[in-house]
Design brief:
The complex is a heterodimer of chains A (about 260) and B (about 180). By secondary structure, chain A is an all-alpha fold. Helix content of chain A is about 60%, strand content about 0%. Chain A has 9 helices and no strands. The longest helix of chain B is centred in the middle third of the chain and has 14 residues. Chain B is built from 3 helices and 7 strands. Chain B is elongated. In chain B, the strands form 2 sheets. A 4-stranded mixed beta sheet of chain B has the order 4-7-6-5. In chain B, strands 1-2-3 form a 3-stranded mixed beta sheet, with helices on one face. In chain B, about 30% of the residues are buried. Chain B is about 20% helix and about 20% strand. Classes of the chains: A mainly alpha (about 260), B alpha/beta (about 180). The interface between A and B is medium-sized, with 41 and 28 residues.
């Protein structure tokens, strides 16, 4: 099945960054189904995946409508999820990294949930009424996800020697990828100018304060800044995304329009 | 239709004005459409039906989803259309309205009583302060009364449960697990 070409308009790109970040993290969380350390967490991780898929569906639907409103070819949520190539995905590299152990998953969930809660709060005031409406619902879900992840990060960091060692290793592994979220660029600037949404760079201060506030009782602190920058938001991904997409898109690529 | 006094055409009137018996009948039918995941409360009890509009071409039911990813949404919409069609009130159209976002505060008192009778502790009022400054260090969750024995010696086992809208609890007094409809 042939891939679609998506509008390069900054407003569409901004929406794809949000929708794809939710969608790809949902895929990673769904991988835990049947594999989490205890059944309650198996259920929690897949519940959160479900919330994220719902948010992604709504935002991608809006992105595809906007393509049409801007004079291009409109697309629906399924076309955007299943028929785009890797280079056209706009998620932060962070969310496509392998799920790792439970500490990696929880620390990433915490970082993303704090960020998304801040983002959805700002998007409630978006000039795009549909995006504002999606945000009004999603902000409550992000808050619940953040509380869940914060509880586990503190428990792991303040738990046994083994759990603390694993959480520390997770922070070292993931830390270099957090910086990309807040890298300013033209897409961000134009979204801000159009009052579509905030510059993600402007959320960094609050994000750092919030993240550090959970790390402290977990016995950790924010590491030093590094020079490395991942580039998923502009479509240049790690080697991991292709495998996620292969699994997610295989059915629609092989049997276009297939349903059950 | 021509207005006799001024000779100007009037807009085509709706089949019946809002608040008419067709709308009232529709609300009565909707009160029998049950949530597929909690089949004791109706879509009206849950507060997800926001309005019923008697438009010229179709009866429009305005529905607000509970959770972004709630998999029951499509089943609920199909059940609403089927029930109204069966009652002879169709054609029916569903309009999805996201704003204002659904809150568990919209569950009716009778809905809450039905949840409790079914063994699910209903949601308390949403803590509006939660929307204010971010709190990062988790708070202890306030104890709920067990829906079976009323003991407050209970604990939350998991923040998530069998459906998007519920969390899992346990009563230490009677030893039974139970569910809590999340306040959101």
């Amino acid at each position: 099945m042939q891939s679609i070409t998506v509008s390069a308009h900054p407003s569409v790109q901004y929406l794809l960054r949000i929708g794809d970040t939710c969608l790809i993290l949902a895929q990673r969380l769904a991988e835990w189904c049947g594999h989490a350390p205890i059944v309650e967490e198996d259920i929690a991780l897949t519940n959160m995946a479900l919330d994220l898929v719902g948010q992604a569906r709504a935002v991608l639907t809006r992105a595809g409508q906007l393509e049409g409103e801007l004079g291009g070819t409109p697309h629906d949520e399924d076309q955007l999820a299943f028929l785009r190539d890797e280079r056209d995905f706009r998620n932060c590299t962070l969310v496509e990294l392998p799920r790792g152990d439970f500490a990696v998953t929880m620390l990433r969930n915490l970082a993303v949930a704090i960020f998304l809660e801040l983002l959805w709060q700002r998007l409630e005031g978006s000039s795009d009424g549909e995006l504002a409406a999606i945000a009004g619902k999603a902000v409550k879900e992000a808050r619940y996800h953040r509380e869940h992840a914060a509880g586990w990060v503190v428990r792991l960091g303040d738990g046994t020697e083994e759990s603390a060692t694993r959480l520390k290793a997770a922070l070292e592994l993931l830390w270099p990828y957090f910086a990309e979220i807040f890298e300013a660029d033209a897409v961000d600037d134009e979204a801000d100018a159009a009052r579509l949404g905030p510059r993600w760079a402007d959320l960094q201060g609050e994000w750092r304060a919030g993240f550090a506030a959970v790390l402290a009782p977990a016995g950790l602190s924010l590491p030093a800044e590094r020079a490395f920058r991942s580039t998923g938001k502009s479509g240049r991904h790690s080697e991991h995304l292709g495998y996620v997409l292969a699994e997610m898109q295989n059915l629609q690529r092989s049997f276009p329009g297939g349903v059950w | 239709m021509i207005d006799a006094a001024f000779g100007t055409p009037l807009p085509v009137p709706p089949l019946r004005a809002a608040g008419s018996s067709r709308v009232e009948h529709a609300w009565a039918v909707l009160a029998t459409v049950l949530d597929p995941e909690v089949p004791v409360v109706s879509v009206v009890d849950l507060g997800i039906v926001r309005a019923v509009i008697d438009a010229a071409d179709a009866l429009t039911v305005v529905v607000t989803p509970t959770y972004s990813g709630c998999p029951a949404t499509e089943v609920i919409e199909a059940s609403i259309v089927a029930a109204l069609d069966d009652a002879g009130l169709g054609p029916t159209r569903i309009r999805m309205q996201r704003a204002p976002a659904w809150t568990s505060d919209w569950i009716s008192d009778s809905g809450k009583a039905k949840l409790r009778g079914y063994g699910i502790v209903p949601p308390g009022p949403v803590d509006l302060a939660k929307g204010a400054p971010l709190r990062f260090v988790p708070r202890a969750v306030a104890a709920l009364a067990c829906p079976r024995c009323e003991s407050k010696d209970t604990e939350r086992l998991a923040a998530f449960g069998a459906t998007a809208c519920k969390a899992l609890w346990r009563c230490r007094a009677c030893g039974e697990p139970f569910e809590h409809f999340k306040s959101i």
